[in-house]
Amino acid sequence: MQPAGGARAAEVCVSEGRRRLVLATGNRGKLREMRALLADAGWELVGARELGVPPPTVLETGRSYAENAVAKAVAYARVSGLPALADDSGLEVDALGGAPGPLSARFGGPGLDDRGRLERLLAALDGVPPGRRGARFRCVVALAQPGGSAVVREGELRGRVALAPRGESGFGYDPVFELPDGRTLAEIGEEKQELSHRARALAAVAEALRAAR
Questions:
Q1: What does the radius of gyration of the chain's CA atoms come to, in whole angstroms?
Q2: CATH number at residue 29
Q3: pTM attached to this predicted model
Q4: Catalytically annotated residue among 40, 87, 88, 174
Q5: Would residue 186 count as lying in a domain?
Q6: How far apart are the C-alpha atoms of 38 and 141, rounded to whole Å?
Q7: Considering the domain boundaries, does residue 1 fall inside one?
Q8: Overall domain count for the chain
Q9: pLDDT tens digits for 150-191?
Q10: Residue 81 belongs to a domain
């Protein structure tokens, strides 16, 4: 049986000589980053709503980034009838035993926005000196074909959690993730597109995208 919305998506799978790839996220910050990072991969990058396809509800209950990324990519590929790309990422803090990790987007419980989760993280690290605030961002991306298997790639970026938020760009935990040079991810602007954990993971999957055109 044709997936819901699949017939319509299949009719528009080629635009200006480029195949369409569904980005499996409703996060506007991620959409902007993914489009910028994959601009030269040779695909037209679209969101599910742009195709008129209701985004599927995917519960990110996996115990790893890979499980969550694959679940999202497979679900979006199924409902759209197109290849889909999803990511799952998180912040792992040494002093918190690697938490929040895959639970980063839900850290602190329901009802918190990005700022609330960021403040909860700083509260959890209250009194921890800079030398013990080591952390890393990890990102896993999954590329799924309708009815097929998924290609998975990973990227990471090491740094530490700053004592207070700094910077106006980025999203999520970017204002408190401090790079070795002392700047936060929210302070580096366009450079983030070259060195972030998501940039590294997407650069790795870009080769698979070029080969699949």
A1: 18
A2: 3.90.950.10
A3: 0.81
A4: 88
A5: yes
A6: 12
A7: no
A8: 1
A9: 999 999 999 999 999 999 887 899 999 999 999 999 999 888
A10: yes
